Amino acid sequence: MKIGIKGIVLLSIMAISACSEQKETKKSRVDDLLAEMTLEEKIGQLNQYSIGAELTGPGEKQGQAKRRYEELKNGGIGSVLNLLGAKNARETQRQVVENSRLGIPLIFSFDVVHGYKTMFPIPLGESASWDLELMEATAAVAAKEAAAAGIQWTFAPMVDISRDARWGRVMEGAGEDPYLGSAIAVARVKGFQGESLSDPATIAACAKHFAGYGFVESGKDYNNVYVGENQLMNTIVPPFKAAKDAGVATFMNAFNDIDGVPSTASTFLLRDILKGNWQYKGVVVSDWNSIGELISHGVAKDKREAAKLAITAGADIDMEGVVYIDHLKELVEAGEINEDLIDDAAKRVLQLKEDLGLLDDPYLYFDENREKETLLKKEHLDLAREAGRKSIVLLKNQDDLLPLKASNIALIGPLMKDKDSPIGNWRAAAEAGSAVSLYEGLTKALPDANFTYAEGVKLSVGPNNFFQEVEVETGDRSGFAEAINKARNAETVIVAMGETAYMSGEGRSRSEIGLPGLQLELLKEIYKVNKNIILVLMNGRPLTLAWEDENIPAIVEAWHLGSEAGHAIADVLTGKYNPAGKLPMTFPRAVGQVPIYYNHKMTGRPSSAPGQVFYTHHTDVDNSPLYPFGYGLSYSSFVYSDISVSESLLKADGEITASVTVKNTSDVDGEEVVQLYIRDLVGTITRPVKELKGFKKVMIPAGGSIEVEFTVDPEMLAYYKGDLKYGAEPGDFELFIGTNARDTQSVQFELK
Ligand code: BGC
């Protein structure tokens, strides 16, 4: 007897009333459904396409659209991406539910990375807040807006550790550190998913890209990765594990290979670690055609072989590869793969649908009224402003040029009036040009000030969008004279420079990471006529700013801050908000230092005694970064006391505490992120010179002091020593507390 999904729902409702153990009932509904499905229908659940509104109705269709529409109606598609809006989604869902044999609903997915309509800071920028509650809250609002617009699944957070600022996708992640990255991964997963996936205000999250994508060679997107087990397990994997432990509903494969094995076909990553050691029960989705790309990688001779490799490794859904739908059936029939593999993958997808509440109500997320009421709500924009100012990092503030005291101010630079760049890349459904510009923010915040304005130079020529390469302006200096003139006649000059939204992000790797185009040249000209410059940077990656740091008195890192960028920056410049952001990624002095990160290893030749030649260094640049990880200034000044530790001996089953008193010696209240680092002095394998192991963001009133305490236990000292052996090793450790990864004090303790 064919009972279909409607019949199964009815049976389940009866079963629920008969049995109090709802979880078991739910589980059996998925099993019942699976038992009901043909091989083709199961494979359909593993097929995902990007479709637009053109597929929502029957209309005239040709070519690819025709094929996809047929598959849609026949249960040949399990989930879609990029189809937006409650109305379009409802209509598409209706086509599937009413036409396919079992009426199994689709999941609608989308890259909701830092907001849906209301844009929050790009993830790298927001990570500079070190404020986990904030990041959970912005992800929750992003989920709420997306869910109201028909989406149930986001491909976020990106939890790839990234140490190479040339890689354009550093803007999407939480920076270079596994500890901070793990904490942020958890906050974002919790924010997107909330308490329950079936709540129509939450969406399923996706930990991506598993694994190693942040380590693409020379920072070139999609490039090959060469990391060993130590790097993989101790640096790259921790945020994925943290996301898994936080209950992330899905994982995504990565485009790259690791030492010869494409991640999408890696049984080690997917079967042994994720689905084996970790017992992960969620869905693994490929990246866009990353199964098809196994052919370009040269590990599969055709799509058939690619399908076989990926399903065997454990990729459950084929995103846009059209590989599973075309080849899995013949592979099963030829006896080359076991149907159990298909069953396991399909079951994971069905379970996700169950968890999302779609098996109870396929139309749960499609409420046009809710969509209208939810998008761009005032409270969402308020949160965007809050997130914006918390993400700003004050890099330099010589002679307290900030907060602004001047009232005769020249506003200069290609990003000063720009309403689009602050939205950033991966902007989901944001309206182009919808951000508050810095010009708007400042003129609103200081209505009595005397402002002049000049763009000075253009940053790019032609279009700035996701699908086109941005062309940097390199020839037109016609705006210089006006800008220089206005700067000359002002008390203070605020210069807004950096990158447009599409100079970072996917496919946007750069070999030089200074201010693009003619910006630095203009800045130097302005400096000749007026040295009171406040440089506001908007960018998606760490930049090289050696000249700027040496000469410009005040520098503010304002990333791409989202919808309310201009207000948020004005809050900081005027002193309405005291900045407290800290860099989640090291800023190099020169691009040749990259990858540069604080938690590097010693090497056999670390010494830098004067006159020494044969040690680890470049001959033309100091080994130190320009701005270290964890760095950021405040309008307050903080003084740290010595560290006191409860004991200098840590037992295998014990713990010790370390504390400092931080005093705010200024006359403004301010927040400080107090950071704890530990170094394992001798290990079985080489160990980092320092690793972040804790942090606390505290508000310290003007003139006041706060005692900050950290508990240290052996688990915090554990690491992968090789051959997947994990644990802490007895011996001596150094414990550091400080205001960034460079400026710390330390004490030693021993693990017995
Ligand atoms: C990206 C993913 C993204 C997917 C779907 C790919 O190009 O690498 O991160 O989720 O596209 O848009």
Description:
The protein is of the alpha/beta class and 752 residues long. It folds into four domains: 1-36; 39-371, TIM Barrel (Alpha-Beta Barrel), CATH 3.20.20.300; 388-593, Glycoside hydrolase family 3 C-terminal domain (Rossmann fold); 638-751, Immunoglobulins (Immunoglobulin-like). It contains 22 helices and 29 strands. Helix 1 runs antiparallel to helix 2 (22-36). The structure holds beta-D-glucopyranose. Beta-D-glucopyranose binds at residues 81, 111, 155, 208, 287-288, 506.
Q: How can the largest sheet be summarized?
A: 6 strands, mixed
Radius of gyration from the CA trace? 27 Å
State the low-pLDDT regions, or none.
1-26
CATH fold label of the largest domain: TIM Barrel
Helix content: 25-40%
Tally of helical runs: 22
What is the architecture of the largest domain at the second tier of CATH?
A: Alpha-Beta Barrel
Q: Taking all residues together, what is the mean pLDDT?
A: 95
Outline type: globular
Number of structurally distinct domains: 4
How many beta-strand elements?
29
Tell me briefly what this model is.
The chain has 752 residues and is of the alpha/beta class.
List the helices and strands and how they pair.
Layout: H1 4-18, H2 22-36, H3 39-45, E1 47-50, H4 63-73, E2 79-81, H5 86-99, E3 107-110, H6 123-127, H7 132-148, E4 153-154, H8 178-193, E5 206-210, H9 229-236, H10 238-245, E6 250-253, E7 257-258, E8 261-262, H11 267-277, E9 283-285, H12 294-297, H13 303-313, E10 318-319, H14 324-333, H15 339-355, H16 368-374, H17 378-391, E11 393-397, E12 408-412, H18 438-445, E13 450-454, E14 460-461, E15 471-472, H19 480-488, E16 492-498, H20 519-529, E17 533-538, H21 546-551, E18 554-557, H22 565-574, E19 638-640, E20 644-645, E21 649-650, E22 656-664, E23 670-680, E24 691-700, E25 705-712, E26 719-722, E27 725-727, E28 731-738, E29 744-751
Parallel strand pairs: 1-2, 1-10, 2-3, 3-4, 5-6, 6-9, 12-13, 12-16, 16-17, 17-18, 21-29
Antiparallel strand pairs: 7-8, 11-18, 14-15, 19-22, 20-22, 22-25, 23-24, 23-28, 26-27, 28-29
Helix pairs in contact: 1-2, 2-15, 3-14, 3-15, 7-8, 7-16, 7-17, 8-10, 13-14, 17-22, 18-22, 19-20
This protein binds beta-D-glucopyranose (BGC).
